[in-house]
Write a structure and sequence with these properties.
This protein is α/β, with parallel strands linked by helices. The protein is 41% helix and 16% strand. The structure holds pyridoxal-5'-phosphate.
Length: 222
């Protein structure tokens, strides 16, 4: 990554890298690059929208509510992805604002989202987040709980698009990506939201359909 290039130039570079990795797959499929814009200002994001990029990620409902209604205006085709933990009491707001929710990780949240979707008559795609490294403080459902949570989500008519995970930091991510891909296959799910700035090419090689990239586009967060 060249640190003196613009976010739009870095986006073009990441897009090329993703295409190169995707082409090495036995059966290439499209990969969505989610530009993660948490902590970034409207002025930093606007050039990517002007360059035609249409998939963005935020990790907090409130921050997204303050930035995106204005940024989105006139761009009805922008898709907003929630990539951070969601409190059940913010389910209504999340369903109203986001087109996909990548952090569905517990029964109480499935219940809250199902109620919010029924009320709003709007059904954002849902990814079940798995605590793939069995880390104490991390979000995501334990692997052992995944079958029951999936059954609950499907019964509640959440549109389950796939699985999402954030592997443990500072260790090789590939084995965790491979495990998430296997879990998705076992449960008949096509979507795989995995890979961030440091490891998105590896994730795509292992089958990611959605990569979530912040730092590699905008530089380090403050
Ligand atoms: C912040 C964040 C990202 C992007 O991380 P970078 O390392 O900046 O690319 C991806 N996924 C989640 C869940 C995040 O919170």
């Amino acid at each position: 990554m060249n640190s003196d290039t613009s976010p739009a130039a870095r986006l073009a570079d990441a897009t090329t890298r993703i295409a190169r990795a995707a082409a090495l797959r036995p059966a290439p499929h499209p990969v969505t690059l989610i530009a993660v814009t948490k902590t970034r200002s409207a002025d930093e994001i606007a050039p990517l929208i002007a360059a035609g990029h249409r998939a963005y990620g935020e990790n907090r409902v409130q921050e997204a509510e303050s930035k995106w209604p204005a940024l989105r205006e006139g761009h009805g085709d922008i898709a907003l992805h929630l990539v951070g933990q969601l409190q059940s009491n913010k389910a209504d707001a999340a369903v109203a604002l986001f087109d996909a929710i990548h952090s569905v990780d517990r029964p109480s949240l499935v219940t809250a989202l199902a109620r919010a979707m029924d009320k709003a008559d709007r059904r954002p795609d849902c990814f079940i987040q798995v605590n793939i490294g069995a880390e104490e403080q991390k979000g995501g459902c334990p692997i052992a709980d995944l079958p029951a949570l999936l059954t609950q989500a499907r019964t509640a008519e959440l549109p389950v698009a796939g699985l999402m995970a954030v592997p443990p930091a500072s260790v090789e991510a590939a084995p965790y990506f491979a495990l998430l891909a296997k879990l998705a296959r076992d449960h008949g799910l096509a979507g795989l939201s995995m890979g961030m700035s440091e490891d998105y090419e590896t994730a795509v090689l292992i089958g990611a359909t959605h990569v979530r990239i912040g730092t590699a586009l905008f530089g380090p967060r403050a």
